[in-house]
Write a sequence for this structure.
């Protein structure tokens, strides 16, 4: 199958366009900030970015709204014009910050603000319909300070796993001197195109027997969507049919390094589960504390990396997914009960974690297949799952990103997310 042309929208892409407003479509981005251990030029970075766009066809994506209001996804060719319109590179200079301030802490804070402004501008420049979908900014930080390279990309063409693939590819390109080669030289592509991957998702969801089995399991996990549901947040319907919340607020909590270490390394082992089992169990306890009556349940939407959606069905696609770039995230709803246990009793807590663990383990393909069943399934069980999930209206979104190193990325419309030393040779 040709990598160029229209692609079926994946479940996560469909979810995004179902929920995004016309003003928010362009601003759902991710970013990283890397440091160059040696001097780099904008031309070198541009060459590397172009090679990334040739290698990973998702970075040549365009998303357009049709006359009927639906969205379509198409991948452009590897021609120079398509590549150059998909990724852009620019330069910025914040060296004056350090020369104008004597106090190091003030200068450091001022530089962070300047970098944030640079990232904001880069985010605003992205356009999923016309391009670019990714942009890099080479930042001069002054004599004696390493350059920074801020890379932003729309979430539709990148996710957390993708950043690791992209940055590894970029380092490989530099180390093998690919970045200094001519612009016309082709970079090898990954094993499967995005168009092929998304088409196989649709075919498997609609016709593979394993997906029919998954649909039946999901039907048992989500129930009918009617019984014993606790809805703590008052909803309202907007004129365009979307639902929103009457009252919103933000709350952020941080754990210190030692508590975080103990939570990650010891908590799961102590109660016989993994860290995600422990965290979802905590959600269950929180639901009970917030007023959910005994026996009531709340719809919780969870996320996974989604690259195992065809595990056991299409091994070629599953293997290719590990080196592909794009937005693979899966979202799936589970019914979490409102729990009230004696938190001082180790046996009670272990019992809770065991119940949650069994529920999470019963989710087919780690949750990746629910979106496929809902979007493309044709069986009666798939129809029942669609109806139940729509009626249940998930009230909590839970997202555990796992343990991230310095190369991690973040979902953000306004900040350069993280730093990593980037070492071109």
């Amino acid at each position: 199958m040709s990598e160029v042309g229209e692609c079926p929208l994946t479940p996560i892409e469909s979810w995004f366009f179902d929920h995004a407003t016309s003003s928010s479509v362009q601003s759902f981005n991710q970013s990283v900030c890397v440091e160059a251990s040696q001097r780099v030029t904008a031309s070198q970075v541009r060459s590397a970015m172009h090679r990334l766009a040739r290698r990973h066809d998702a970075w040549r994506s365009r998303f357009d709204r049709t006359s009927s209001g639906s969205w379509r996804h198409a991948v452009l060719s590897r021609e120079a014009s398509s590549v150059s319109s998909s990724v852009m590179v620019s330069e910025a200079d914040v060296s004056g910050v350090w020369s104008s301030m004597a106090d190091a802490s003030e200068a450091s804070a001022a530089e962070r603000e300047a970098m944030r402004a640079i990232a904001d501008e880069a985010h605003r420049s992205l356009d999923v319909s016309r391009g670019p979908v990714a942009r890099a900014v080479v930042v001069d930080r002054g004599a004696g300070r390493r350059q920074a390279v801020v890379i932003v990309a729309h979430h539709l063409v990148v996710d957390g796993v993708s950043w690791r693939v992209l940055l590894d590819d970029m380092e490989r390109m530099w180390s093998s001197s690919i970045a200094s080669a001519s612009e016309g030289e082709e970079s090898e592509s990954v094993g499967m195109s995005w168009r092929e991957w998304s088409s196989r998702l649709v075919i498997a969801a609609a016709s593979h027997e394993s997906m029919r089995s998954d649909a039946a399991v999901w039907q048992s996990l989500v129930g009918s969507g009617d019984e014993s549901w606790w809805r703590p947040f008052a909803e309202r319907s907007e004129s365009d049919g979307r639902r929103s919340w009457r009252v919103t607020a933000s709350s952020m909590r941080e754990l210190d390094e030692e508590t975080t270490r103990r939570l990650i390394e010891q908590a799961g082992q102590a109660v016989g589960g993994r860290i995600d089992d422990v965290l979802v169990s905590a959600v269950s306890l929180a639901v009970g504390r917030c007023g959910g009556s005994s026996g009531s349940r709340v719809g919780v939407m969870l996320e996974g990396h989604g690259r195992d959606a065809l595990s056991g069905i299409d091994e070629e696609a599953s293997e290719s997914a590990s080196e592909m770039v794009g937005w693979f995230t899966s979202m799936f709803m589970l019914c979490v009960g409102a729990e009230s246990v004696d938190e001082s009793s180790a046996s009670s807590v272990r019992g809770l974690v065991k119940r949650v663990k069994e529920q999470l383990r019963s989710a087919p393909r780690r949750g990746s297949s629910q979106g496929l069943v809902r979007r493309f399934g044709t069986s009666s069980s798939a129809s029942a799952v669609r109806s139940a999930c729509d009626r249940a209206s998930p009230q909590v979104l839970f997202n555990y990103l796992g343990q991230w190193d310095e190369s991690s990325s973040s979902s953000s419309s306004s900040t350069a997310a993280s730093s990593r030393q980037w070492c071109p040779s």
Summary: The two ends are 37 Å apart (CA to CA). The chain is about 40% helix and 15% strand.
